[in-house]
């Protein structure tokens, strides 16, 4: 094989490789996760990043997470379902303050969730 032909083949392969890389980067599927949420009392609550050692006065145990769903898909509107915390995590709510709920992550560690207004 002549040197000129070899050069043309290498250039052609380089062009094909470059086109493949550009195509793959343009058509790469984007993935993102949804904010950690809990469905309670037919409402969605989103984690607000506030952890506390005690839940406020007036909040009582209401039940446990019954199902965990993927955080890569839209949140399911079913009571005691979460896309962040695991099945069995205890939920605390108030009869008067409907804006917040708390999830017991560990003994004496509670994560605050706020009502997502739609």
Descriptive report:
The protein has 118 residues and is of the alpha+beta class. The protein has one helix spanning 3-26, and strands at 37-40, 43-52, 59-64, 67-68, 81-82, 90-94, 100-106, 109-115. The protein has an 8-stranded mixed beta sheet, with no helix packed on it. The longest helix is centred in the first third of the chain and has 24 residues, at 3-26. The radius of gyration is 25 Å and the shape is rod-shaped. The mean pLDDT is 87.
SSE order and pairing:
Elements: H1 3-26, E1 37-40, E2 43-52, E3 59-64, E4 67-68, E5 81-82, E6 90-94, E7 100-106, E8 109-115
Parallel strand pairs: 4-5
Antiparallel strand pairs: 1-2, 1-5, 2-8, 3-6, 6-7, 7-8
Largest sheet: 8 strands, mixed
Give helix and strand order, one letter per element, not per position: HEEEEEEEE
Overall geometry comes to rod-shaped
| Strand-pairing-aware structural class | alpha+beta
Number of helices: 1
Strand content: 35-45%
Gap between N and C termini:
69 Å
Percent of residues in helices comes to 10-25%
Radius of gyration: 25 Å
Strand order of the largest sheet: 3-6-7-8-2-1-5-4
Number of strands: 8
Contiguous runs where pLDDT drops below 50 for at least 5 residues: none
């Amino acid at each position: 094989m002549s040197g000129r032909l070899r050069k043309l083949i290498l250039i052609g392969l380089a062009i094909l490789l470059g086109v493949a890389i550009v195509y793959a980067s343009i058509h790469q599927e984007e993935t993102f996760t949804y904010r950690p949420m809990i469905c309670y009392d037919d409402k969605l609550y989103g984690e607000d990043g506030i952890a506390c050692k005690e839940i406020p006065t007036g909040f009582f145990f209401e039940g446990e997470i019954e199902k965990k769903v993927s955080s890569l898909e839209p949140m399911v509107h079913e009571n005691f379902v979460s896309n962040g915390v695991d099945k069995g995590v205890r939920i605390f709510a108030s009869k008067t303050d409907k804006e917040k709920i708390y999830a017991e992550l560990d003994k004496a560690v509670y994560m605050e969730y706020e009502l997502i207004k739609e």
